[in-house]
């Protein structure tokens, strides 16, 4: 790359990332941190180098008929501008904007900006990792948004009469980018190429297939985690109710109900044995009291040979059995109470008509889109009229110059 001596001395060992010829020998040199504008020797000016740092807060473009002014705003430090030919503005804007995005931390070190597009109030920067979008009068400022290719799960297009849209499905929301039809194909192919290369797929069909497989894998993993959580909850419920889960041996219940204490099942078994001993002792006492002769009862030897029967006809053994049954019923009731408490769910709210809300929002979105299309159509019409007027003014300027040349060629003048 041909670098003038004045530029080489101003580089200070920085490398030149891009060179853009301007007019004659004038040129613009872009480094990772600065933009150097070289002005060659002329009839009315001497050789000079102008420096613009990339740490700008705002970048603006003022288009003229023959010249375009690129302005970098540094906030409290003021502004710096460079005037370039109107036909070179895109060539100049691309490397300068790439340097500003890198200096602002929008792009990562080593991330390359493949293309930049500027359409009236829309600016797009396509990198190998993301899509940076800015909407507004400025080319770029801190009010921007970005779409990481890692978050994109679907890609589609929507064609319109004046402008068409890129539709990018992401994990958070659907992103739509409207581009004039004249440049839509170029933008679409550039974005698709960067997106598919990031995901390692050759085409849109392959990209959607890869996204479906990834979604299926995530759903399968989530289902497995849910099943494991359900099994753990069931084990805790069984342990709280004092019931052994299917497939577990007694004394080997899970530690979830005991708070991780491995000796808790042994203590539960000991407590159950103590309760059984109490029930058996009560039944034995009832049987012994029933076997003693009642002084008030004079029934004879036949009655003493048989256990005493109460008014209901129940024997002491029946009382013991009833006591055991009552104890079992109490345990079962406690387990049922625990299960019932665990199954309590909050009261359901009233049904919400989401379909009506979605339809209403879609209708509003379509109405806004129609208004935007009409506004863009009017703006495009005004832009064409402005270009036609500029062409007429240029033609008048050329005619004036030819007339002046013809007048200068007359000897008597």
What does this structure look like?
The protein has 413 residues and is an alpha+beta fold. The chain folds into four domains: 197 residues, Roll (PH-domain like), CATH 2.30.29.30; 49 residues; 61 residues, no CATH class; 39 residues. 47% of the residues lie in helices and 21% in strands. The strands form four sheets. A four-stranded antiparallel β-sheet has the order 1-2-3-4, with helices on both faces. Helix 5 packs antiparallel against helix 7. The radius of gyration is 43 Å and the shape is globular. The protein starts with a helix and ends with a helix. About 15% of the residues have low confidence.
Characterize this entry briefly.
With 413 residues, the chain is an alpha+beta fold.
Question: Topology, please?
Answer:
Layout: H1 5-11, E1 18-21, E2 27-30, E3 34-39, E4 48-53, E5 58-63, E6 67-73, E7 79-85, H2 89-103, E8 113-119, E9 122-127, E10 130-135, E11 145-148, E12 152-158, E13 163-170, E14 174-180, H3 181-199, H4 204-241, H5 264-291, H6 301-305, H7 316-342, H8 354-409
Antiparallel strand pairs: 1-2, 2-3, 3-4, 5-6, 6-7, 8-9, 9-10, 10-11, 12-13, 13-14
Give the fraction of residues assigned to helices: 40-55%
CA(first)-CA(last) distance: 48 Å
Number of domains: 4
Order of helices and strands: HEEEEEEEHEEEEEEEHHHHHH
Largest sheet: 4 strands, antiparallel
**What is the CATH topology assignment of the largest domain?**
PH-domain like
Main CATH class of the largest domain: Mainly Beta
What is the average per-residue confidence, as pLDDT, rounded to a whole number? 77
- SS field, number of helical segments: 8
Strand content: 15-25%
Strand order of the largest sheet: 1-2-3-4
**Low-confidence segments, ≥5 residues, pLDDT <50?**
249-262, 289-318, 331-346
Total number of strands: 14
Strand-pairing-aware structural class = alpha+beta
Rg measurement, Å: 43 Å
Which term fits the overall shape? globular
Give the full name of the CATH homologous superfamily of the largest domain.
Answer: Pleckstrin-homology domain (PH domain)/Phosphotyrosine-binding domain (PTB)
User: Can you tell me the CATH architecture of the largest domain?
Assistant: Roll
């Amino acid at each position: 790359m041909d670098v003038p001596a004045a530029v080489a001395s101003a580089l200070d060992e920085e490398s030149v990332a891009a060179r853009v010829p301007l007019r004659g020998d004038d040129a613009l040199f872009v480094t990772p941190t600065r933009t150097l504008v070289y002005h060659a020797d002329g009839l009315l000016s001497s050789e000079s180098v102008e420096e613009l740092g990339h740490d700008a807060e705002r970048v603006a473009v003022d288009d003229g008929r023959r010249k375009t002014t690129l302005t970098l705003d540094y906030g409290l430090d003021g502004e710096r501008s460079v005037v370039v030919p109107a036909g070179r503005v895109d060539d100049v804007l691309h490397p300068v904007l790439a340097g500003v995005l890198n200096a602002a931390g929008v792009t990562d070190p080593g991330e390359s900006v493949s293309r930049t597009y500027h359409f009236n109030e829309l600016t797009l920067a396509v990198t190998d990792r993301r899509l940076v979008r800015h909407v507004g009068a400025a080319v770029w400022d801190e009010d921007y948004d970005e779409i990481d290719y890692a978050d994109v799960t679907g890609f589609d297009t929507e064609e319109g009469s004046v402008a068409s849209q890129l539709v990018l499905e992401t994990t958070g929301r659907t992103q739509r980018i409207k581009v004039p039809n004249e440049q839509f194909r170029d933008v679409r192919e550039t974005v698709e190429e960067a997106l598919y290369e990031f995901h390692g797929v050759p085409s849109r069909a392959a990209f959607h297939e890869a996204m479906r497989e990834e979604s299926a894998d995530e759903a399968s993993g989530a289902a497995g985690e849910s099943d494991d959580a359900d099994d753990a909850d069931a084990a805790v419920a069984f342990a709280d109710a004092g019931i052994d889960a299917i497939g577990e041996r007694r004394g080997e219940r899970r530690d979830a109900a005991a708070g991780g204490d491995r000796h808790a099942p042994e203590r539960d078994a000991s407590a159950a044995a103590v309760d059984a001993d109490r029930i058996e002792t009560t039944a034995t006492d009832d049987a012994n009291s029933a076997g003693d002769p009642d002084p008030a009862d004079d029934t004879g030897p036949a009655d003493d040979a048989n256990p005493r029967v109460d008014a209901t006809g129940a024997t002491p053994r029946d009382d013991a059995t009833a006591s055991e049954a009552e104890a079992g019923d109490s345990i079962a009731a406690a387990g049922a109470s625990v299960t019932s408490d665990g199954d309590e769910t909050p009261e359901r709210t009233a049904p919400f008509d989401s379909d009506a809300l979605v339809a209403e929002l879609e209708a509003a979105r379509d109405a806004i889109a129609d208004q935007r299309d009409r506004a863009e159509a009017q703006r495009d019409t005004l832009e064409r009229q402005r270009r036609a007027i500029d062409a007429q003014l240029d033609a008048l300027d050329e005619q004036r110059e030819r007339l002046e040349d013809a007048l200068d060629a007359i000897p008597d003048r």
